[in-house]
Write a structure and sequence with these properties.
heterotrimer; A alpha/beta; B mainly alpha; C mainly alpha; A: alpha/beta; D-Maltodextrin-Binding Protein, domain 2; eight-stranded mixed beta sheet; two-stranded parallel sheet; 11 helices; 41% helix; 18% strand; disordered N terminus; C: mainly alpha; 21 helices; 2 strands; globular
């Protein structure tokens, strides 16, 4: 049993037997009136789907009484969204969705870090990545892939979602760990990259586990490696080794969370952290995690702050390495 | 009349240029000069970006070619104007027209400045009344009715129907 | 397959599903008619309301908003010259000219009929040849998109009084598109340190400004001719001559729309542009194009509706959304616990076939709704223009705000209103600017992606079969006009 599953089931037991949650000792106060979850992606993006799912659970299971509205403030690599929230210090009715562009956009544009200004509330969902190759490709393992890239630097191509995106970071980490040069081809969106990959135009593509499994089952792709600490147990992935097992020391997961505006009352932040923890313990959320093959490791308040700060460092290192960070 | 490039679709017989009665003035040269200036600005503004990036065009590739194309088109237009016009016809407003256009534009600017302070729906109402009564000189009653329809339309379709959070600091 | 379709109809014809299909297309019609709020944004806004519904019902309703929006968008394009979406630009070009001549009703009718015929045809294609077409969709990639975009840009040269002025407008549109984060290198370009410009300049404020606001400004300045457009109710319908002129335009537009719609990178705006230009080649009176050609409206509307249906093919068979609306539809599937992907059509047969059946039904509903309403909407133009003008300005500004919830967009919209007005005054055509702005990212990104794919070799454009064919088409598009101009001049001299 993985550590995450252990902790999740312990947390579940805790709620079942009525033990108060980890935030019980903090002073808590509920915000009043309707709540806006600000999302920096358009409707249909991963952060949007995650926030809509959890908002639906919070309202329908009676965890949060305040009506929650998802507001897409897309554009500017999430900067429309985070600037909106940063401009509302102390506001108790707005939360910002934290996705990787909230971290990477300031690094790429050379503006002040967002994560250092907002009030951290929770990091509650992660998604692992799988490296796919075309079904008829000569590569059957990450080693083959790396060997090919070593032999002909830059001749192995990855179709990716966006310059500076999660899969660009993953590509950068693999390049560094294996000491190879890949050609990362950015697209307008993850799905545009998938079209390029499915059309057989490139050698590699990073996908989330759920997307990857669909393609593998349909015979459109084969998996080379999962960029996680340990293997997945599901059918279709059980025999896919991790990158680390294959000598490429990369563990990288996409993650999402929420933060409040700067100077949010700690009591309100604690209340939200508690509510997010409760919502992630519901059966519906667990089903959603399972269906989307996501992880549900939970970080609250200060713990979340440290977690976000760590991730920000990873982003900064990799973006500097691939030459995207502003000087 | 000299017409270096005829319209693609229309044959010269059907296209009747107004050239014989049309007098070219200094204003006719504005688009040509603006285009040349813009092309220069793009050329200068993208200095420092890469024209070619390893195997593929870089961030300055398209800007360079666009500056070249824009500059060339500007010069072509300039030359054809010197030689008697290219078939383009200016449509300059009279004083009343210019006043209305300028007033409408500045009212819109005030609309945007005032909307976050007073609220979008009330500002829309004030804007409507100002345009109808002061700028266009319409009668009071029809103006009030039109304003009411637009204001209620905004409130019901955008604010209630689609739940777009229109700014309403005063509560409405 | 017929069995599955019949099952689908059985699902779609359940009274509650019928009611939600109707609600969807009605909402789509309204949302499509609002400038700024396109079908994709409307679907996203209404998504939470579908959570209580069965997945199939919810998807049917949301899809109804998507194609209903194509019908609704016609209204504003024709009546007030504000295309609600990029795909409405070509409709506005001739449709609004028709409205000014009192033929607004005819323009709306032909748009509704054209959309209907092309929509039904495209749904039939979705139903019967999705597997074959999805393979075709994947054979399109960067090189093909580059040539397609180049073709579109070259074609904009013919959209104005003189080629120089049209090309200037097109180049200007491409220059506007340069602003923002470079799509491949990720570095800022011409942003002048303004964070608001990092994402580039969006199509919506430009279209609302350059078309809608500029149009109002130009009309306002003419104090003397601001009387309403005189129309009698009997002029509102399509005449049999107009119908004869539009029939084949609808068929050609529908087929072009379907094929372009299937390609995940292309979309309805390129579809309607290509259909419009094709139609001008076929039309018996090409000189009417740009001045109120009914076959131009028919082709553009048929193409954008069949393209928006065609986008369902890669969405259903590969989970690849071809446009913003299908992206929301995919999200809706996931939120309703249905995992989209290559297995969707077999694993969720009831849902998929119910959806396909619902699109047949929804298109019929939209036709029934739009045909009798066309004269009614067209008679809105009998209201004196002075009363319409400030209202159009207000709705344009609020629409621009609703698109991003940011006042920067509204400023942008006013700026482009001023610019569009100046363009009208100086006789620079506006459609090439807007179309070039839409095509520019595709043009630039796909050229660079192509050369990344080929490690710098331009041979990639010749080696791929579809690309090679397109290259020949592009070459012809470049050479033909020059050649015919030279020939004309020689005739004149002789």
């Amino acid at each position: 049993m993985s550590l995450f599953k252990l902790s999740a089931s312990l947390a579940l037991c805790a709620t079942l037997i009525g033990v108060p949650s980890a935030f019980a000792q903090e002073e808590m106060r509920a915000p009043e009136g309707p709540i806006e979850f600000t999302v920096g992606s358009g409707a249909g993006g991963s952060p949007d789907i995650i926030m809509r799912t959890i908002a639906q659970i919070m309202n329908e299971e009676g965890i949060v009484e305040n009506p929650i509205v998802i507001q897409n403030r897309s554009g500017g690599g999430h900067s429309n969204a985070y600037n909106h929230v940063l401009g509302l210090p102390g506001n108790e009715s707005t939360l910002l969705t934290l996705a990787s562009p909230v971290f990477t956009t300031p690094i790429v544009q050379g503006t002040d870090s967002v994560i250092d200004q907002i009030t951290p509330i929770a990091g509650f969902v992660q998604s692992e990545l799988v490296l796919l190759t075309t079904p008829d490709s000569p590569y059957n393992s990450l080693q083959d892939f790396v060997a090919a890239a070593k032999e002909q630097p830059g001749r192995v191509r990855i179709a990716g979602g966006a310059s500076g995106g999660n899969d660009h970071v993953a590509t950068g980490l693999v390049e560094k760990a294996a000491d190879i040069t890949l050609t990362y081809i950015p697209h307008e969106s993850g799905s545009a990259a998938r079209a390029t990959f499915l059309g057989g135009n490139v050698e590699g593509h990073f996908a989330t586990l759920a997307e990857g499994l669909e393609a593998i089952n349909a015979g459109q792709a084969k998996a080379l490696a999962i960029l996680s600490a340990e293997r997945r147990t599901e059918e279709g992935y059980a025999d896919v080794p991790t990158a680390t097992e294959q000598g490429v020391d990369v563990v990288y997961t996409q993650f999402w969370g929420v933060g409040g505006p700067p100077d949010l009352d700690p009591a309100v932040a604690a209340w939200w952290a508690d509510k997010f923890e409760q919502a992630t313990q519901t059966a519906r959320w667990q089903e959603s995690l399972e269906a989307n093959m996501q992880l549900g490791e939970f970080y609250g308040l200060d713990e979340a702050g440290e977690y976000f700060a760590r991730e920000q460092e990873t982003f900064r290192t990799v973006l500097t390495q691939v030459g995207l960070a502003a000087q | 009349m000299s017409q270096p490039l005829a319209p693609l679709a229309a044959s010269p017989e059907t296209e009747v240029p107004a050239a014989p009665v049309y007098r070219i003035t200094a204003l006719d040269y504005v688009p040509a000069i603006a285009m040349i200036a813009l092309s220069l600005a793009i050329f200068i503004g993208t200095a420092g970006l890469k024209y070619w990036d390893n195997v593929t065009p870089g961030a300055r590739f398209l800007p360079i070619w666009l500056s070249a194309a824009g500059g060339l088109l500007g010069i072509l237009l300039f030359i054809s104007l010197r030689r008697g016009g290219d078939g383009g016809v200016l449509d300059l407003p009279d004083r009343v027209g210019l006043r209305r256009a300028v007033l409408a534009l500045s009212s819109m600017a005030i609309f945007v400045v005032a909307a976050p302070v007073i609220g979008m729906v009330p500002v829309a109402g004030i804007f409507m009344l100002f345009m109808l009564l002061a700028v266009l000189g319409q009668r009071l009653v029809p103006s009030l009715i039109t304003t009411a329809i637009v204001v209620f339309g905004l409130k019901f379709i955008f604010a209630y129907g689609l739940s777009v959070p229109l700014p309403a600091p005063l509560g409405f | 397959m017929i069995d599955l379709l019949l099952q689908g109809f059985a699902v779609a014809f359940q009274p509650s599903n019928l009611a939600f299909i109707f609600l969807g297309v009605l909402l789509g019609q309204v949302i499509g008619a609002l400038p700024g709020v396109g079908p994709a944004a409307g679907m996203a806004l209404l998504l939470p309301l579908t959570f209580g519904l069965e997945p199939a019902t919810a998807i049917m309703m949301l899809a109804g908003i998507m194609y209903g929006g194509q019908y609704g968008g016609t209204l504003t394009s024709v009546l007030i010259n504000v295309p609600g979406e990029a795909s409405g630009v070509m409709t506005a070009v001739d449709g609004h000219q028709m409205a000014r001549k009192g033929r607004g009703g005819a323009a709306l009718s032909v748009a509704a009929i054209g959309s209907f015929i092309a929509g039904i045809g495209a749904v039939a294609a979705v139903a019967f040849i999705t597997p074959a077409l999805s393979g075709f969709a994947l054979r399109f990639n960067a090189p093909e998109y580059f040539l397609l975009a180049a073709l579109g840009i070259i074609a904009t040269a013919s959209l104005g009084a003189t080629p120089i002025r049209s090309l200037m407008a097109g180049v200007f549109g491409l220059m506007i598109a340069l602003v923002g984060t470079d799509p491949l290198a990720g570095t800022p370009r011409l942003t002048f340190g303004q964070p608001a410009l990092y994402e580039g300049i969006d199509f919506i404020p430009v279209a609302i400004g350059v078309f809608g606001i500029a149009e109002v400004l130009a009309s306002l300045e003419r104090a003397h001719d601001m009387h309403p457009i005189r129309t009698r109710l009997k002029d509102m319908w399509l005449t049999s001559a107009e119908w004869a002129q539009s029939r084949m335009a609808i068929v050609r537009g529908g087929v072009i729309g379907l094929f372009v719609g299937i390609m995940p990178g292309a979309g309805a705006s390129i579809a309607s542009l290509l259909a419009y230009l094709t139609e001008r080649r076929f039309s018996r009176n090409p000189e009417m194009f740009g001045k109120g050609a009914i076959d131009g409206v028919a082709a553009a509307e048929a193409a954008n509706n069949s393209a928006s249906h065609g986008a369902m093919i890669p969405m259903l068979s590969l989970a690849i959304p071809g446009n913003a609306s299908t992206a929301v539809l995919l999200a809706a599937l996931i939120l309703h616990g249905v995992r989209p992907g290559p297995m969707l059509m077999t694993q969720e047969a009831t849902l998929v076939w119910g959806l396909i059946a619902s699109m047949f039904i929804g298109n019929v509903m939209l036709l029934i709704m739009n045909l009798p309403m066309a004269p009614l909407f067209a008679s809105l133009l009998r209201i004196p223009y002075v009363y319409l003008a400030p209202g159009i300005l207000v709705i344009s500004l609020v629409g621009a705000y609703a698109a991003t919830l940011d006042f920067g967009t509204v400023w942008m919209c006013i700026f482009f209103g001023l610019l569009g007005w100046l363009m009208m005054k100086f006789d620079i055509p506006r459609p090439p600017l807007v179309l070039a702005l839409v095509l520019a990212p595709l043009l630039e990104t796909s050229l660079r992606q192509s050369l990344l794919l080929s490690f710098g070799s331009p041979m990639i454009f010749v080696e791929r079969p579809i690309s090679a064919v397109l290259l020949v088409v592009v070459a012809f598009a470049l050479i033909l006009p020059v050649w015919s101009a030279v020939k004309r001049r020689r005739n004149r001299i002789a």
